Amino acid sequence: ACVSGRQDWYRTIDRLPADRPAGRIFVAGMARRSRVALSRPDEVPGNAIYVLSTQSWPPAALYAMLRSGLLDLHAAGLASTFAGGTKRFDGTFLRQVRLPLWSMVSRKLQQRLVELDTSVPVPRPQLLADVFRLKSARARRALDRTLNIETENGS
Fold first, then answer.
1. Are the CB atoms for 141 and 151 separated by under 8 Å?
2. E-strand stretches of 59-136
3. Which of 103, 4, 112 is nearest to 57 (CA)?
4. What's the CA gap between 62 and 70, in Å, rounded?
5. Which of 23, 34, 54, 99 has CB atoms 3.0–4.6 Å from 71's, for a disulfide?
6. Phi/psi of residue 126, each to 5°?
7. Helix (H) or strand (E) holding 141
8. Closest-CA residue to 36 (of 74, 72, 76, 66)
């Protein structure tokens, strides 16, 4: 097709529903660390970008969980890894990631997730431990190690 004007520059071959949900989350299909973005309603994902939407979790809270290292935590044990440490965050992998029911998350933690500053992806193992109700220090240290966080005592 010939591009004759700005409106003709890009047309997707995918069928897109007219009522796309607000607050969709884009996930890059391959990366060393998970790469996620909160989309605007008019944005269309390109190749190797997976789209997540949610009906049970508020999009801002789900986005906060993903930006806090949830995908990297699961990728450590589930994702295919290639030379150089690149991991595949594809549909098969994304369907294996688990979250507790939103109704099972405490109100205080729900508020914290919705209000969390997600402008920079920062591993937050303590937040993940709180959401998954991991109480033991050993489990929390394992999260730190998995997400490559140095602890105060150097372990």
1. yes
2. 87-88
3. 103
4. 10
5. 34
6. -70, -35
7. helix 137-146
8. 66
Question: Nearest Cα to 147, choosing from 93, 83, 75?
Answer: 75
The tokens describing 4, both together, are 């004759």
Q: Which residue has the tokens 């240290």?
A: 141
Give dist(CA 93, CA 43) in Å, integer: 23
Digit-by-digit pLDDT tens for the chain (155 residues) are 444 455 544 445 555 566 666 678 889 889 888 999 888 766 777 778 888 888 899 999 999 999 999 999 999 889 989 888 899 998 899 999 999 999 999 999 999 999 999 888 889 999 999 999 999 999 988 988 888 764 444 43
Q: What is the pTM of this model?
A: 0.78
